[in-house]
Amino acid sequence: MERGINRANETIKMNRRKFFKSATLSLAGSSFLLNSCASDEGSDTGIKYSKLDEILSRPVLKTELFSDPVIIEQISLLRYDNSILCKVVSHEGAEGICVSNDLYMTSLYPIFIQRVQPFFIGKDAVKLEEIMKDVYLHNYKLQGLALWLPLATVEKAVLDMLGKIAGKSMGELIGEIHHTHIPLYLANNNRGRSAEESIARIQANVSEWPFKALKFKVAGRMHEDEHPRGRSEKLIPLVRETFGNEMTLYTDANGGYSVEEAIKIGKLMEEYNYGYFEEPVPFDWYEGTKQVADALDIPVAGGEQEPGMYNFRWMIKNNALQIVQPDQFYFGGMIRSVKVARMAGAAGILCTPHMSGPGLGYLYMMHFVSVLPNAAPFHEFKGFNQRFEVECPTSSLTIDENGTIKVPSGPGLGVIIDPDFINRHQIVKA
Ligand SMILES: [Mg+2]
Q1: Distance, CA 304 to ligand 1 centroid (Å)?
Q2: Residue 106 C-alpha to ligand 1 middle, in angstroms?
Q3: What is the pLDDT of residues 31-62, one digit of tens each?
Q4: Quick one: how many helices (H) and strands (E) in the chain?
Q5: 287-304: pLDDT as tens digits
Q6: Contact residues for 363 (Cβ-Cβ < 8 A; gap 6+)
């Protein structure tokens, strides 16, 4: 087996520029063209900041779909147990709902109520991007998950409402549809378990669905010592040997390594033909991330914790990341994430969103990916929502034999959430 892998590595091993080209050109039906020109040193994607700034200045929401204003009459934050919903209602009675990321919204609701919600009441929802800029201008000192998660929660509820009014899916509101089916990878987290125990659990998880790609955790989170020691060095070859050459493999260090350690472990992943290496060093150690990326052929992925647009701009320009992973909640919503994906695309960099938390995260992920001409080959899946029922007239919301799932094409989020579940929620007050 190992010889086979090494032989495959000899043939498949390619430098990062070749990877981009290969991955990019394999995007079936995509009009995305590689237009980056990485420098000979591999330290810069060649894109100009002026080009990235032009991309950032371009609107995302298709306001031309709306001939009349959609005045927001009411925004409610609703809670039942640990579930948090945002409901928006227009003057004409149109409604939109977002199932928020409850992991953090249960702490951040005062920011939502005091510092985000008031900017939307009485405003025209079609001017969503302008309102969001205004929220940022008045709250930029809160930049980070504390601001972006509440803002992303309103944004998704507004997009759901606008989609229902226009008869368009969330994706159709923010881009052109490039993907009707999303290929998934399964994210596994078995930190603290031995390599042998981890592999048994990964096998059990993966056997539930016909996945063609998977990701697992390496290192200790954010520079903690790994437990048990040496787990990652054992697991990296073991996962490849267990799943064979057909399975696409990714790892996620959650910022666990120093630059030197990350380069060492990255080279081991290259030996076993891994697809990318996520957050090798702490996410806000930008020069460290770039040093790792410059030293390795395997693409470095990151961005799930990134709060700043200009940090993404720098990392894209300077080739510090070869896969960008904005989170649909942590980064302030789908519109901001599209801007990151557009910048990445112009530099020949692929995008795959980080999927945070339970609820309906997989649905927001699918709508976002549906509009990415530079989508990575596989996208994060952490399981279906287990807490409540949704009906979807346009997708079975099941994983097919190819390991893909069909994006709902109905208006807004494209699903009907169990009304009994919604009715159990009570209005949250700060
Ligand atoms: Mg991660």
Answers
A1: 6
A2: 22
A3: 333 334 344 445 799 999 999 999 999 999 99
A4: 15, 15
A5: 999 999 999 999 999 999
A6: 408, 413, 414, 415
Query: If we measure between CA atoms, which residue out of 116, 184, 146, 197 comes closest to residue 305?
Result: 146
Distance 319 CA to ligand 1 centre (A): 19
User: Are 356 and 187 in contact, with CB atoms under 8 Å apart?
Assistant: no
Give CA–CA dist 250/155, Å, rounded.
31
Is the pLDDT reported for residue 175 higher than 80? yes
Q: For 308-332, give the DSSP string.
A: -HHHHHHHHHTTS-SEE--BTTTTS
pTM value is 0.91
CA of 195 to the centre of ligand 1 (A): 19
Q: How far is the CA of 355 from the centre of ligand 1 (A)?
A: 9
201, 190 contact by CB (below 8 A): yes
Find the largest Cα–Cα distance for the chain.
67
Cα(427) to ligand 1 centroid in Å equals: 33
- Ligand 1 centroid to residue 203 C-alpha, Å: 20
Residue environment code for 105-119, b if the CB has 16+ CB neighbours within 10 A, otherwise e: beebbebbbebbbeb
Q: How close is the Cα of 60 to the center of ligand 1, in Å?
A: 26
* Cα–Cα dist 375/275, whole Å: 14
Structural domains of the chain ordered from first start: 2-58+172-410 (3.20.20.120), 66-167+419-427 (3.30.390.10)
**Helices (DSSP H) in 244-395: which residue ranges?**
259-271, 286-295, 309-317, 334-346, 361-370
Ligand 1 mean position, distance from CA 277 (Å): 10
Residue 356 Cα, ligand 1 centroid: separation in angstroms? 9
- The Å distance, Cα 411 to ligand 1 centre, comes to 30
d(CA 43, CA 24): 20
Cα(326) to centroid of ligand 1, in Å? 10
**How far does residue 279's CA lie from ligand 1's centre (Å)?**
7
Closest C-alpha among 157, 156, 215, 169 to residue 190 = 215
